[in-house]
Request: fold
Amino acid sequence: MRGPSTAWRVVFPAACAVALVVGTGRSGVWGDEPPQLAPITGGAAIERAPARSGADAAGRVDPARSSRLSDDDRDRLYSQVERDAEELERQGAQLRRLTLLLRPCVVHIDARKPVQKTTRGAKPGSEDEAGSGVITRVSDRMVVITNRHVVNGAELDNIAIRLDDGRELRPARMWSDPSTDIAVMAVDDDDLVPARFAERDMVQIGDTVLAIGSPFGLSHSVTLGIVSAKGRRDLDLGDEGVKFQDFIQTDAAINPGNSGGPLVNLRGEVIGLNTAIASNSGGSEGIGFAIPVSMVLFVSRQLVENGTVSRAYLGVTLDRTFPQKTAERLGMVRAVGARVSGVTKGSPADAAGIQPDDVILEFDGQPIDDDDHLVSLVSVTPTNRTVSLGVFRGRRRIELQMPVASREQFEPQ
Reply:
């Protein structure tokens, strides 16, 4: 996604979220083919009612009477409608089963937090923010995963986690990562139903998905849609400063209060965490964004195990524009991948032999779209391992091996 985006406002869909402005910037369970509905019988198969030329008491004649269905025709059509409805109802039953499975895994969150900005002379106050969350088990600990902006600034005693069965819990501990807008809250209650998370990002554009959460405070609401796009990485989320982005885009309705709720596939697996919407009105207009499951799990595990997130570090400066003229100068037909404009001395990239004007086409087996894509992949790469790089240099592709180091080694916090 190079180039500016216009017109839309991107907002975090929590009940009291502030509108933020965009600046620049499995297969279905019913098989590959949709069920075939019974055709509407026509032609000789339907016997029309015999034309009646008789007039009524006033001498008026209905010229369309001969085209009307007979009682037998209507009975046959009702039978066909019933058969077709059975096919559709079998598909609808899958969605009902998913709802039964997932509602106990989703929570409503109310957080009371200090007002961030007050007018001159006004006394500091508090504000309520509502959102959603999903229950799971991370590193043998029961937790609720949500968006950081839902709970950021709230004391633990001021965060209420409401379950589907009416119970209310308070978090025992909380960790958060501002760079991805992910927060994890530990809960001391074993009588909880954990959601099943997808093991890796397998979602494809066009996949059917469900979004579950508390839009406008209406807890445990379910909406249906598809994955509209992947790899949205240039959203301007204002003061929150979400640095690492790789959003799934969906047209499943996401509204204020949905923040932190799960995006789920037809297998009942969580594939993303609903986070933001693009809207002129502040409500759903069919463009919502969810953090992909790989990023959610990577960040959540590190937060629970270490209390902080350790990310991989390359040590390169990337060309943010990478124009077509530069690509042609390097011998490329089009600008694809991430062009290196500088290398930090002593960094992993320096050790691997990366040079300025190299174009990184592949990172650890993943083809690279652009510089933002590379940054996103590196941000969810475990440290202390070696990754392979596909690099375009001197009008040909070469393969390099790079030891991955922790960002903290080179950029102390």
